[in-house]
Design goal:
The complex is a heterotetramer of chains A (359), B (422), C (283) and D (523).
Chain A: H1 5-12, H2 15-37, H3 48-73, H4 81-101, H5 127-151, H6 156-175, E1 187-188, E2 192-193, E3 196-197, H7 201-227, H8 229-239, H9 241-246, H10 251-277, E4 279-280, H11 287-300, H12 306-325, H13 330-344, H14 348-358
Antiparallel strand pairs in A: 1-4, 2-3
Helix pairs in contact in A: 1-2, 1-14, 2-7, 3-7, 3-10, 3-11, 3-12, 4-5, 4-10, 5-10, 7-8, 7-10, 11-12, 11-14
Chain B: H1 3-19, E1 31-37, H2 45-64, E2 72-78, H3 84-97, E3 102-105, H4 109-121, E4 126-128, E5 141-143, H5 152-160, E6 169-175, H6 178-193, E7 201-206, H7 214-224, E8 229-234, H8 240-249, E9 259-261, H9 266-270, E10 281-284, H10 293-308, H11 321-340, H12 345-352, E11 356-358, E12 364-366, E13 379-383, E14 389-394
Parallel strand pairs in B: 1-2, 1-3, 3-4, 4-5, 6-7, 6-8, 8-9, 9-10
Antiparallel strand pairs in B: 10-13, 11-12, 13-14
Chain D: H1 3-19, H2 24-30, H3 33-45, H4 52-59, E1 63-65, E2 71-75, E3 78-81, E4 93-94, H5 99-113, H6 119-132, H7 138-147, H8 151-165, H9 171-184, H10 187-197, H11 205-254, H12 262-283, H13 291-313, H14 322-344, E5 360-364, E6 367-370, H15 371-393, H16 395-405, H17 407-412, H18 417-442, H19 451-464, H20 469-509
Antiparallel strand pairs in D: 1-2, 1-4, 2-3, 5-6
Helix pairs in contact in D: 3-5, 4-5, 5-6, 6-8, 7-8, 8-9, 9-11, 10-11, 11-15, 11-18, 11-19, 11-20, 12-13, 12-18, 13-18, 15-16, 15-18, 16-18, 19-20
Classes of the chains: A mainly alpha (359), B alpha/beta (422), C alpha/beta (283), D mainly alpha (523).
């Protein structure tokens, strides 16, 4: 796997073109929520269905970006990023279900015959603490898991299998009703966020803009990191960790930093995903979702920052289209995509574009 | 020259991305759009595929008789793939993109809960064909499956009766999700009202896809040593096979410890070797083995349809309670539209009240005037060798549904008519 | 091309810390990092034992390397040369024995990273460089600066650091391919790059594992000159099979055999030693 | 007792209905369910040999009645009139029974069988009565104990009697009964003894203390039964995990190929078993009991062939790139699942257990070991031995080990690495197919059968140590037993989560697993 392609793509294809394309896509994405505000009968009106769909895909793009930071740059293939995404979602879900329940208990607690909130639910009625939880929950889990994992120097595939076992354990835990997160149903039936009605056009547009801002912010952060010395050390960690140690760098600190950062980004994406989609439940943590995220990054092109966004957009766009047009053949298409990308597109779509760009 | 190919391919890529989002459907003027929202892949495909096929058969039947209000019914089938957020997305697409007038769909409670906000927001109409835990009454949903008082409670009454084995102790075994939790909560309160002490009730939950029931069966045996025991099983469809196999292999017969199940129907029995299950019980509002002219016609029609469309396993096609509920639901909706003279949701909702239909279960089912539930008869069936059920007990006539179970405190204040949940 | 190695150089301390100008740079850099080298030995290994499931890789080996000295280690394959380097750099923990860097730093209890930061640089047998990074970036990473995460986030190359890199690029004759990815360099160029990385790291003790393997004669000769120019400022320990190269640089030679020191002294002395001939050099 | 005599006796009883005891059958058929129950109770109190065939017909569901309430017994399809000469007006309808009646029929049969000459029959009847004897049968049991010749049957009968004597007036009889119950260790005895502890029920102090000691004895026996039960279920789960993971131990442990489609090999093995069962049902229904044995080689070669095909087409290009193999094989697993769903339908397919794999052996009063689990444990162990032999004692095994340790050097030594990889991968998949055959006997067979085992299999191989069969065996049984010990305490879900947590921590400590590869690892 050679050097961070993001920079070479930009240099090769000429900075003006990538910026041009980037600006174009950004303009379209900004226009969407504004068009949504138009009255329904106006021909340019963008329906709530499309807005939530694109919003959902943007959240998945942030997850793909976060996964690319750890996999493309530091060589850590995590098959458990769905867990961090879901933890962020659950933190926001707790706040939303407290909002929907007013001062009473959230609906699902009635059949568990709980009369008062468990300790971890305290404070979730105010938005700021919920935001802290969105960052703290995935961040702390990543810190603890990462500290142990990187201290013991487990490598490559072992690390991936451990992360898969972690997200599987998380799913089982959240499926239990006694854990107090709504068991199999999770949280749904949200009504208000920060006092605004969650189904109002204004709220939907604001949520969309927030997701877009988070995406652009994390992209900028990614570029900054890739260009800094930190990014180069990360690439060195991926390629020759021993050599790096003998140059006096402690790779554990670097891996832990990027691992926790990536988990927090996933948590934030999850927090923005839930109010737009309207439901969060343990199946988000299933190992299948996390592996699908890995294919977005692989399809887009590891180690490039734009690649995974393209990958996430393409795969999820196909998923929405396939499950409507050819419901039975979607899994064939996804399976073929997995095999095709790993065999014929090792550097992903961006790699393809770069090669075409060079000819 | 170099730059243009790059520009073209990136634009092409984003075009594909955006085109995937606006599925354009040509608006055919003269048909009534009917949405079918059942999982055709993923874990729930096992139960929901047959409901989709039953819905299509009923629609063909109605179209053959001239459709509704002179218009043909056009089914719109989508696959939410047992993925709950996808249910919500597909529901929104059916209502806002395809503009369907009614939707028949969902199976698990979580899929219903995830689409409920969408139907209430866009004032759509959903028919839910599966028995469920109650505690919900939305103006946009008609529940053609059984409420707890139309399935769980009569089953326990039968177990308490002399014929049912006069059980003294009850082992409530279920999969850990909201339907078993709520049903067991109602049953525990009901058992207390019948004087059964807490030490004679044991509640055990297993995770989804649990396949090793050795410890659970050992627990049941230990528990049953304390007195005549009955097991009330709300185990989810898939996990029933390992449970019953382990029960039989450990030498427990229905005569020593009867097991009544609420989610084992003819469809699930197709996948199980029924020899060790003979004598085990199931409670439903309909069994395929029920003998009456309406049912024999219904079963014959279904078998012919399965063979004609050569559905997988068509030779062993069976009908079960949710399929009957789907059949009744679609016919009642058609009658309501004819009565209301339009497919507008509010008009149809009012027209639905009091609708009656001669159902394959041998009774005429009536839609309750206010609480959106069907009056349904309850039957207890015993598993036979051929994978069918033999009805050993049934209520005299249809029972009125109680969505707000009296056995959960605070329910008496809940209104008996539909009100929006938020 | 035997060098006029001065055998007794080893016996009295190579220089006293306050020492003459020649060694001041070496001493000063060592002293500046608080490395206590009062007795003049930078590395002390006593009774080091390492065994892999019964196979004795090192058996009670004793080795002392003086400050500013250029020590060559020779011996047949499997004599424990690479294991010795692993022990010094902390990659393998000895079963028992004492290993000190300077007087105070106990190598057996320090991690690889701490040992590297304390001032021991290592060049691997197979040249390992950061293939995805450019030559300049390889050197930038190896440079002696604060290597914590926060530092690397804010790092800016100062003018002086940039000059130091250019100077080293010149010495290893790679200033022409500054921006080329290291992966595209030839085997010899990679060896030089790795040596360059060691130089910018500016360690007190350089461990070089077969640095000239696979190099042309011209390159070997150039490397010999380079090492000799380094000898005064740094202490070097070179593991090598190329007797010509050893002859041209060695102050002092130690012969390893089956995990322990067989003989030590100048190259001439060692070549004359009966046991060494019988075991290693052959008739 | 010469069996010929017994057969004569049976023949005789068959003819009896013709001479006919007055209308037993017709009263039963005419009676309402509750009246039928009373009839059965009276019959079990006063058994009459003539009634045996009627009871047998009832138990096997062969009693039927026509509209005129005349009883008929169906003998392989033909309806014989049970009493009197009535030709069946139209096809008589089978009598409807419920669980309560079936229980009473069982008791009646047992008391009737007491009269039979066959000691084995009498023993079975006595055991049945231990469980279900009704107070009304006290007199009958008393008489039978006195006249019983066979020692074994007598002890069983005295035990059945003891259950009823607990409420006898005479304390001495109660004392003897309590002491007898003490040794049985039967769970039912425990509850009966517990009721005796309360002075209100049992006034005699002596009997109460005897009940106390008896109860302690019974509890100890039950505890042993429980622990044995847990150990057995742990072994059984362990053997299942081992069968699932063994194939992976080869493909991942030895070849280093991360095969996420391994679960689907299990599923294909199970579907192969289903196909073999279908063929047997159609072409050789009488030998249906042998279908699992035939399914073993079929499943092995089918999955091995599919495994080899996958290896040749996809995995061959991805050696040395573990992360890409992981994603590619995950794609293969999605395709395989959807393919099977389209071919066989989304529903589960029915795989019936043959007779020798259903039921269980009663080892202790509260412990029944199911046959299918015993067979699977044995099967798992011999698969392990076979694999060990194959790997260590055959040429292919040597090649496989050579290729896995150093592919380049093996190629230099003339080992056809391409073919060896293919065969090794085929072997791994074939073993997974065998695992699939075993799984089809204990759980349901559906398209996503493999998904529930894939993560457990990887954990077993990683925990056991890569490249070490012994490690995987230890890890599988260890996990199985740990799971089964935790489950009663904290429930299935928390048990699984705790085990996953422990594995994650363990791997941090010892990344190379339980049985590490010896020697220096030069990376």
């Amino acid at each position: 796997m050679n050097q961070p392609l993001a920079i070479t793509v930009a240099q090769k294809a000429g900075p003006k073109v990538t910026l041009g394309v980037g600006a174009l896509v950004l303009a379209v994405l900004i226009a969407l929520p504004l068009l949504h505000l138009l009255p329904a009968d106006n021909v340019l009106h963008v329906s709530a269905y499309t807005l939530t769909l694109v919003g959902k895909i943007l959240c998945y793009c942030i997850v793909a970006l976060a996964l690319d930071l750890v996999w493309g740059y530091a060589g850590l293939l995590s098959l458990g990023h769905g867990l961090f995404f879901a933890l962020g979602g659950y933190a926001m879900g707790m706040y939303l279900s407290r909002e929907a329940a007013g001062d009473g208990l959230p609906a699902f607690m009635s059949f568990l015959a709980w009369t008062e909130l468990p300790w971890y639910w305290y404070g979730t009625s105010n938005f700021l603490w919920a935001l802290c939880l969105v960052v703290l929950a995935p961040g702390l889990l990543a810190l603890v898991f990462g500290f142990f994992a990187f201290r013991s120097r487990i490598k490559g595939v072992y690390f991936s299998i451990m992360t898969q076992a972690l997200t599987f354990a998380g799913m089982l835990l959240f499926f239990r009703n006694e854990t107090g997160f709504g068991g199999n149903n999770g949280f749904t039936g949200f009504t208000r966020i920060l006092g605004f009605d969650i189904t109002a056009q204004g709220t939907r547009a604001a949520l969309f803009i927030a997701t877009l801002a988070l995406l652009v912010g994390s992209l900028y952060l990614g570029f900054k990191l890739a260009r800094s010395k930190f990014g180069r050390v990360l690439t060195a960690v991926r390629d020759a960790e021993n050599r790096l140690m003998f140059c006096g760098y402690d790779p554990r600190g670097y891996k832990l930093f990027i691992w926790v950062l990536s988990a927090v980004l996933c948590g934030l994406a999850g927090a923005l995903y839930v109010p737009q989609v309207g439901i969060i439940n343990p199946s988000e943590m299933s190992p299948t979702n996390s592996i699908e995220a890995a294919v977005w990054v692989a399809l887009g092109g590891r180690g490039t920052l734009i690649g995974p966004l393209l990958g996430a957009g393409l795969v999820n766009g196909m998923k929405s289209w396939f499950t409507v047009a050819f419901p039975e053949y979607w899994l064939f298409a996804l399976g073929a995509l997995f095999i095709g990308v790993t065999l014929y597109l090792p550097k992903g779509v961006i790699g393809l574009l770069r090669k075409r760009g060079e000819q | 020259m170099k730059r243009r190919p790059l520009l073209k391919s990136t634009l092409a890529a984003s075009a594909l991305l955006l085109s995937g989002l606006f599925p354009f459907t040509v608006q055919a003027a003269e048909t009534i759009k009917v949405g079918i929202l059942h999982s055709l892949s993923g874990t729930m495909a096992i139960s929901e595929t047959s409901l989709k096929d039953m819905a299509l058969m009923t629609i063909d039947e109605i179209n053959a008789k001239g459709g509704v209000l002179g218009k043909q019914l056009e089914p719109v089938v989508v696959d939410p793939a047992s993925n709950w957020p996808l249910f919500a997305e597909r529901a929104r697409q059916l209502l806002s993109q395809d503009k369907v007038d009614v939707t028949f769909g969902c199976w698990t409670s979580v899929s219903r809960k995830s689409v409920l906000p969408v139907y209430e927001e866009l004032n759509g109409l959903l028919f839910y064909p599966v028995q469920y835990e109650g505690e919900e009454l939305s103006p946009n949903v008609f529940y053609t499956g059984a409420a707890p008082n139309q399935q769980a409670i009569p089953a326990v009454e039968y177990l308490m009766s002399e014929d049912g084995g006069a059980a003294k102790r009850y082992f409530l075994l279920g999969t850990d999700y909201v339907y078993p939790r709520t049903t067991n909560k109602i049953l525990r309160a009901f058992l207390h009202s019948k004087g059964v002490a807490d030490k004679d009730i044991q509640e055990v939950y297993t995770p989804f896809g649990h396949s090793d029931y050795q410890t659970i069966v050992a627990n049941i045996k230990k528990f049953s040593a304390g007195g005549k025991t009955a097991v009330i099983s709300t185990v989810n469809g898939d996990s029933n096979v390992p449970f019953y196999k382990e029960l039989a292999n450990q030498g427990i017969e229905a005569t020593d410890i009867p097991v009544v199940a609420f989610s084992v129907g003819e469809e699930e029995l197709r996948g199980i070797d029924t020899k060790p299950l003979v004598g085990q019980l199931a409670a439903w509002n309909y069994f395929q083995s029920v003998e009456n002219p309406v049912n024999s016609a219904f079963v014959a029609k279904w078998k012919a349809y399965a063979k004609a469309k050569n559905l997988p396993g068509a030779d062993k096609a069976v009908t079960n309670d949710p399929m009957e509920a789907t059949y009744v639901g679609i016919n009642m909706w058609a009658q309501a539209v004819e009565k209301a003279g339009s497919t507008d949701v509010d008009k149809v909702r009012d027209a639905m009240a009091g609708q009656t239909f001669a159902a394959p279960s041998g009774y005429t089912l009536t839609m309750d005037a206010t609480n959106h539930h069907l009056h349904k008869p309850v039957m207890i069936g015993e598993v036979q060798e051929d994978g069918q059920f033999e009805v050993v007990w049934q209520t005299e006539g249809p029972l009125r549904a109680q969505p707000w179970s009296p056995y959960i405190e605070g329910n008496d204040k809940k209104p008996d008519y539909a009100v929006k949940s938020n | 091309m035997s060098s006029t190695a001065n055998p007794e150089l080893m016996l009295e301390p190579a220089f006293d810390p306050a020492g003459s100008g020649r060694d001041a740079i070496g001493a000063s850099t060592a002293a500046s990092q608080g490395l206590n080298i009062r007795h003049g030995t930078i590395l002390t290994l006593e009774d080091i034992n390492v065994s892999f499931d019964g196979f004795k890789a090192l058996s009670n080996l004793c080795l002392y390397i003086g400050v500013g000295e250029l020590r060559c280690i020779i011996g047949p394959n499997g004599a424990g040369k690479t294991t010795l380097m692993d022990v010094i750099t902390g990659k393998t923990r000895p079963d028992n024995g004492v290993a000190y860097f300077g007087e105070t730093l106990d190598l057996t209890r320090m991690s690889e990273v701490e040992i590297a930061q304390a001032g021991i640089g290592r060049k691997f047998q197979k040249p390992t460089v950061f293939e995805a990074l450019s030559v300049f970036e390889n050197l930038e990473l190896a440079q002696k600066t604060s290597k914590t995460v926060w530092a690397s986030l804010r790092a800016r190359l100062s003018g002086e650091q940039r000059d130091r890199i250019d100077e080293v690029l010149a010495t290893i004759k790679l200033d022409g391919s500054r921006q080329r990815p290291a992966g595209l360099l030839s085997h010899g160029q990679k060896q030089f790059l790795e040596i360059g990385m060691l130089l910018v790291q500016d360690p007190q003790l350089l461990l070089l594992d077969e640095p000239v393997a696979g190099m042309t004669d011209a390159e070997t000769e150039f490397t010999a000159e380079l090492f000799k120019s380094l000898a005064r400022k740094h202490s070097l320990m070179v593991v090598e099979h190329d007797m010509g190269f050893v002859g041209s640089i060695a102050d002092h030679v130690t012969v390893l055999h089956q995990g322990s020191v067989l003989a030590a002294g100048s190259l001439a002395q060692v070549q004359a030693d009966e046991r060494v001939i019988e075991v290693y050099l052959g008739r | 007792m010469p069996t010929a005599l017994y057969r004569l006796f049976l023949l005789l009883t068959l003819l009896l209905p013709l001479t006919g005891h007055a209308g037993d059958a017709s009263d039963f058929v005419a009676a309402s369910p509750s009246k039928q129950a009373k009839l059965l109770e009276s019959w079990s109190a006063a058994p009459d040999a003539a009634r045996l065939p009627l009871l047998e017909a009832l138990q096997q569901g062969r009693l039927a009645a026509d509209s005129g309430k005349n009883p008929f017994i169906e003998v392989n399809g033909l309806y014989q009139s049970a009493e009197g000469e009535f030709a069946p007006a139209e096809a008589p309808r089978k009598l409807r029974l419920n669980n309560r009646l079936r229980g009473l029929i069982g008791t009646a049969m047992a008391s009737h069988q007491l009269l039979a000459e066959e000691p084995a029959l009498r023993l079975a009847a006595a055991r049945e009565l231990q469980k279900r004897a009704k107070p009304a049968q006290l007199g009958l049991l008393d008489a039978r104990v006195a006249s019983e010749t066979d020692a074994q049957v007598r002890t069983a009968l005295t035990l059945a009697l003891a259950n009823l004597q607990l409420v006898d007036r005479d304390p001495a009889i109660r004392l003897a009964a309590v002491r007898l119950l003490g040794e049985t260790g039967d769970p039912l005895a425990r509850t009966r003894l517990e009721t005796l502890l309360d002075p209100a029920v049992e006034d005699d102090a002596g009997v109460r203390t005897a009940a106390q000691t008896g109860l302690a004895q019974v509890k100890r026996k039950l505890l042993i039964g429980e622990l044995l039960g847990q150990a057995f279920s742990g072994l059984s789960l362990g053997s299942i995990l081992l069968l699932a993971a063994l194939g992976l131990a080869i493909t991942f442990g030895l070849l280093g190929v991360i095969n996420m489609a391994h679960g689907e090999m299990l599923m294909l093995g199970a579907y192969a078993t289903y196909m073999v069962q279908l063929l047997f049902q159609r072409f050789a229904p009488e030998a249906i009991a042998l279908y699992p044995l035939v399914a073993l080689p079929v499943a092995f070669f089918v999955t091995a062939a599919i495994g080899m095909a996958l290896e040749r087409t996809v995995i061959r290009h991805l050696y040395g790139r573990p992360l890409e193999t992981l994603l590619a094989t995950w794609g293969i697993s999605l395709i395989l699942i959807q393919l099977v769903r389209l071919l066989f339908g989304a529903q589960n397919v029915e795989v019936a257990n043959p007779y020798w794999l259903s039921g269980g052996v009663q080892v202790l009063p509260n412990l029944v070991l199911p046959y299918n689990r015993i067979v699977i444990i044995g099967f798992a162990l011999c698969v392990v031995v076979l694999t060990w032999l194959l790997l260590n004692k055959t040429r292919l095994g040597l090649n496989v080990r050579a290729v896995t340790q150093n592919r380049a050097m093996a190629a230099c030594c003339g080992v056809p690495t391409g073919r060896v990889d293919m065969l090794a991968f085929g072997l791994g998949s074939g073993i997974a197919g065998l695992g699939g055959v075993a799984l089809s006997q204990i759980g349901n067979v559906g398209p996503d059968l493999g998904q529930s085992y894939i993560i457990d299999s990887f954990l077993v191989v990683v925990l056991g140590g890569v490249g070490q069969l012994a490690g995987s065996v230890m890890a599988a049984f260890g996990l199985g037993i740990a799971n089964k010990i935790l489950e009663p305490q904290i429930g299935a879900v928390l048990g699984k989560i705790l085990i996953l947590g422990l594995i994650i921590l363990f791997i941090q400590k010892r990344p190379q697993g339980l049985f590490a590869l010896k020697g220096r690892v030069i990376d």
